[in-house]
User: Which sequence fits this backbone?
């Protein structure tokens, strides 16, 4: 790992977001390096998905700053952020139900990084490649709402990949998968990183987080309570307490 | 002097508008159905009261409860056996089906009652009360007071009765409500019936202060929309307030801008409000 | 594929040849039908593909009507200039109104459009050059065939545009907006721009239809130009036939108009009543339109109806 100071792909400073009096995200600051996998963990309701919404532009922050490759993006709408290279999945999956799998992914190829492809043919080819990469090619003509759970998760991932992102935000893509399915997804994510993409991974599957993350940050009640290398963070007493509650004497 | 009279006219009419909108807002807030046949329910309520008055000689205000009962039945049956069938379909479909119902009911009324103008004309129709130089027609005052009473009654039902709690629970979370033993088919039908009953009452009152034809529904549906949006779908009292705003705005517009602008006013207001509210608050429904 | 095109070309040629064999009444009926079909098809662009149902397109129809009428009756300009003026007015209105109200989601957008036509009618009835409440009279031309062919050409142009949309990147963007607007946004679709563009396209064709109608009918006034019943008729025809498809609105217009004429000829008021019932039944049993019904019957037979109800009931 080089020590030379390089602009991180994403930098957040003091991000804050309230909902009707509930502080969902509170003064969160962190950075993601250009080819880094950053794990994001925390108990339910900690604000992880809200944080992803703030980065992708689905929600705007009430305070704080957000930089992508050094440029401020706080007021950019989500479509512009996608053009810059931010891709995301949704925890509650959002496929285009009446379109086929390949059509779903083609949308990503048509509108992604740099404004996407203008040629339908090239976009469809890229969609095929992405489906092949994520193991969905055999289902390309099925309607998205006919897919089962694990395949829907792959479709979410494929749609985001079709954008050719520089930063990929994954929101619990492994929830509900079997052990071997989890391993498959871990392999896919590692391959994605190898192609030069930075990734922010929200997960509850600790095995995956440990295996994938270069660093981990922990959110609790909207605040960042820990940051560092996997083992250090996962054994940090504050993190343990957040998940399991205070030890009673 | 003229201004005060305008204001009073606007307030009296506005209270009635608020009552009209209540039924639509209730159905919209709980069932997420925008009922394009709402005006038809108002119209049918007006005919109920008209016939009770002219055939059975019942005083219009006294006839209201019976008209409300009839309209409740109509609404209950429609929701239970027709609307419940399509309720999980795209919102455009509920718009279309209620449009179809509106057409059906309007032309049924035309067939049954003819297109003639009817007026509900109790003996006290022309009587006025004069207060501080402002003339207040008794029937309009009566309509206004009745509207406020019914609005309060709705608030009481929603906030203080078991039924009201069940309705509010269903509006917020159907699945959870089901787990607590709510029968959604019945509850939805009751809610729609309540909306129709309120519309019917408003119709009866409208028939006393204005006229009754099969076609009065269209503009009244439109006004109820606007007021529902203005008042929001949470609180009946806000709806009444919205009604007052529209009533006053119309009264002023009729004099200062001309009668052609009266309809345009409500829609102008509607678009302004829809656009001015931050886009994100609409995500919730 | 080639066979399909050949059949279509044949159909259009036959339709174009109608004035040669039909009597005046049939041609007039045809003009009405073609214009109505254009309204449904242009509504389809925003309503069917993007899922944003507008109940205010008769505003654009009215602007097209008035643009043409003002140009021809007040300034004695030719028909094509009149149409152009109508289009400019309608598209400008679409963009001005569209930008603020297309930020609203589906249902709320629909409601915001409800009063558009009525408001414009009210405004126009105060404008002198538009003839205020009295209206305008256009130059008289007794050339039903010309109007018929114009209307047919308009419908073909509109349908070709919709066909292009259905296969283009623009169309995919609109469909993505319909299917899941949040997901479409994070995937890079500039949703507001696309929606406004779709509305402008809708306004374009709707305005020309209004202009042709104005010149044909010769007399216009605010009530008829901004006819509120048109709004719902075009929506129903598009939705009945199949929103988001290329031929759905055509099928819907032709069929529903035929049904209505048959009923009206025999039953009059009861016709309107039955029409309302037809709509109610259609929404229950074929909520995705006739086109989808045809496809569905082929795939699963009569179970299609029950499947629909099962999917959509409480």
Assistant:
């Amino acid at each position: 790992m080089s020590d030379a100071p390089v602009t991180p792909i994403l930098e957040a400073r003091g991000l804050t977001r309230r909902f009707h009096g509930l502080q969902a995200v509170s003064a969160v600051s962190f950075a993601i390096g250009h080819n880094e996998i950053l794990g994001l963990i925390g108990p339910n309701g900690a604000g992880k998905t809200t944080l992803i919404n703030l980065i992708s532009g689905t929600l705007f922050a009430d305070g704080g700053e957000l930089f992508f490759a050094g440029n401020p993006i706080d007021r950019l709408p989500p479509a512009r952020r996608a053009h810059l290279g931010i891709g995301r999945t949704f925890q509650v999956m959002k496929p285009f139900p009446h379109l086929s799998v390949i059509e779903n992914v083609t949308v990503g190829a048509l509108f992604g990084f740099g404004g996407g492809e203008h040629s339908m043919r090239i976009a469809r080819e890229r969609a095929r490649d992405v489906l092949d990469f994520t193991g969905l090619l055999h289902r390309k003509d099925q309607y998205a709402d006919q897919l089962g759970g694990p395949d829907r998760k792959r479709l979410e991932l494929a749609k985001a990949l079709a954008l050719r992102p520089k930063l990929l935000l994954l929101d619990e893509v492994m929830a509900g998968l079997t052990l071997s399915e989890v391993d498959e997804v871990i392999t896919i994510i590692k391959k994605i990183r190898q192609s030069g993409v930075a990734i922010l991974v929200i997960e509850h599957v600790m095995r995956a987080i440990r295996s994938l993350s270069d660093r981990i940050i922990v959110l609790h009640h909207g605040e960042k309570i820990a940051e560092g290398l996997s083992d250090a963070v996962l054994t940090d007493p504050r993190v343990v307490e957040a998940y399991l509650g205070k030890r009673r004497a | 002097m003229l201004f005060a009279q305008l204001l009073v006219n606007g307030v009296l009419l506005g209270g009635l508008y608020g009552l009209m909108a209540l039924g639509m807002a209730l159905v919209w807030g709980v069932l997420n159905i925008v009922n394009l046949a709402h005006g038809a329910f108002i119209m049918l309520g007006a005919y109920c009261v008209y016939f009770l008055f002219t055939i059975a000689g019942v005083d219009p205000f006294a006839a209201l409860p019976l008209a409300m009962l009839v309209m409740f039945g109509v609404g209950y049956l429609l929701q239970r056996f027709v609307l419940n069938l399509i309720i999980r379909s795209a919102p455009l479909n509920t718009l279309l089906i209620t449009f179809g119902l509106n057409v059906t009911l309007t032309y049924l009324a035309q067939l049954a009652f003819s297109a003639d103008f009817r007026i509900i004309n109790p003996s006290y129709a022309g009587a006025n009360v004069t207060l501080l130089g402002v003339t207040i027609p008794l029937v309009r005052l009566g309509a206004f007071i009745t509207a406020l009473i019914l609005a309060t009654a709705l608030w009481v039902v929603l906030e203080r009765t078991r039924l009201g709690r069940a309705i509010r629970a269903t509006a917020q979370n159907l699945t959870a409500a089901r787990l607590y033993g709510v029968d959604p088919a019945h509850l939805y039908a009751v809610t729609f019936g309540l909306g129709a009953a309120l519309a019917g009452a408003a119709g009866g009152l409208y028939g006393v202060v204005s006229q009754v034809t099969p076609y009065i529904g269209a503009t009244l549906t439109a006004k109820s929309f606007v007021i529902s949006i203005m008042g929001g779908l949470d609180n009946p009292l806000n709806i009444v307030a919205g009604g007052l705003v529209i009533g006053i705005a119309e009264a002023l517009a009729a004099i200062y801008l001309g009668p052609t602008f009266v309809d345009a006013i409500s829609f102008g207001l509607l678009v302004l409000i829809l656009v001015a509210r931050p886009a994100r608050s609409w995500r919730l429904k | 594929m080639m066979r399909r095109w050949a059949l279509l070309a044949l159909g259009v040629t036959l339709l174009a040849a109608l004035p040669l064999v039909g009597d005046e009444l049939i041609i007039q009926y045809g003009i009405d039908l073609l214009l109505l079909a254009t309204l449904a098809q242009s509504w389809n662009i925003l309503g069917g593909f993007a899922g944003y149902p507008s109940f205010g397109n008769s505003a654009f129809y009215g602007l097209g009507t008035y643009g043409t009428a003002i140009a021809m009756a007040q300034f004695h300009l030719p028909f094509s200039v009149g149409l152009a003026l109508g289009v400019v007015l309608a598209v400008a209105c679409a963009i001005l109104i569209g930008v603020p109200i297309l930020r609203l989601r589906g249902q709320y957008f629909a409601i915001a459009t409800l009063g558009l036509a009525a408001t414009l009618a009210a405004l126009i009835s105060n404008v002198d050059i538009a003839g205020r409440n009295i209206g305008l009279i256009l130059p008289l031309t007794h050339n039903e065939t010309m109007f018929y062919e114009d209307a047919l050409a308009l419908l073909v142009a509109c349908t070709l545009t919709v066909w292009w949309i259905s296969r283009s990147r623009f169309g995919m963007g609109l469909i993505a907006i319909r299917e899941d607007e949040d997901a479409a946004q994070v995937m890079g679709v500039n949703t507001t721009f696309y929606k406004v563009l779709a509305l402008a396209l809708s306004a374009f064709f709707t305005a020309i239809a209004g202009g042709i109608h104005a010149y044909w009918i010769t007399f216009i006034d605010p009530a008829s130009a901004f006819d509120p019943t048109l709004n719902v008729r075009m929506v129903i025809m598009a939705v009945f036939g199949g929103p988001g498809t290329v031929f759905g609105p055509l099928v819907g217009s032709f069929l529903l108009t035929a049904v209505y004429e048959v009923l009206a000829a025999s039953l009059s008021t009861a016709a309107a009543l039955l029409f309302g019932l037809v709509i109610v039944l259609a929404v229950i049993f074929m909520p995705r339109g006739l086109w989808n019904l045809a496809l569905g019957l082929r795939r699963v037979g009569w179970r299609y109806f029950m499947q629909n109800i099962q999917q959509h009931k409480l």
